[in-house]
Write a structure and sequence with these properties.
By secondary structure, this protein is mainly β. It has two helices and 16 strands.
Length: about 200
């Protein structure tokens, strides 16, 4: 019996890591279904791939769809479908670039833009029980191998998502982290204007 239990737990763990390519029909409420996924046409590499993952940490599997057709140099395109257990349906999908699911009810995304994609925006979201709300935004740009950035933290509990704090920094990484050195708003603005960002 113990061996069987361990084996079934292993199978359950594998099911949580399940990824596959094709189209899916998902329940959207009132006995209705919606087909999600990209048509591959004649090119197999345009097929969507899906991962079942608990993105909001509520104990229910959600669907992360990777969309290669819409991916490019700005980032890899994803659509996240959150399962609503009360209504037994998946909510309308939300688009993200370079999505990372952190496993604690938070997700982050990163997008690139500008000349040679030298501008980067990192955004963090936290599940509030109904939706993912933005908790930080990190915009930075390249200036001769040094990146200057503006890191804003938002009030998770306010309806209007008010800004709680702003930090201006420089770093060699593409995001605000412990290696970032704080700079004044004036220095940040001067560099931004000098390099035409």
């Amino acid at each position: 019996m113990k061996k069987l239990l361990i084996m079934s737990m292993s199978i359950m763990y594998l099911a949580l890591q399940l990824s596959f390519s094709d189209k899916l029909r998902i329940p959207v409420g009132n006995g209705q279904y919606k087909e999600i996924g990209e048509d591959s046409g004649e090119y197999d590499y345009y097929e969507s791939s899906f991962t079942l993952i608990d993105a909001n940490n509520d104990g229910h599997l959600d669907i992360e769809e990777f969309c290669p057709l819409y991916s490019g140099s700005m980032g890899s395109a994803y659509v996240l479908y959150i399962y609503n257990p009360k209504e037994q349906k998946f909510e309308e999908g939300k688009d993200f670039l370079d999505l990372s699911v952190n496993g604690d009810g938070t997700i982050s995304s990163m997008s690139k833009s500008g000349y040679s994609y030298t501008e980067v925006v990192n955004t963090g979201y936290k599940w509030d029980g109904q939706d993912f709300k933005m908790v930080y935004s990190d915009y930075n740009f390249d200036c001769d191998s040094i990146r200057y950035g503006k890191y804003e933290v938002y009030d998770f509990n306010s309806q209007e998502q008010e800004v709680l704090s702003v930090k201006y920094y420089k770093t060699t990484d593409i995001k605000f982290d412990e290696s970032a050195v704080e700079v004044s708003k004036e220095e940040y603005e001067n560099i931004k204007n000098k390099f035409n960002y």
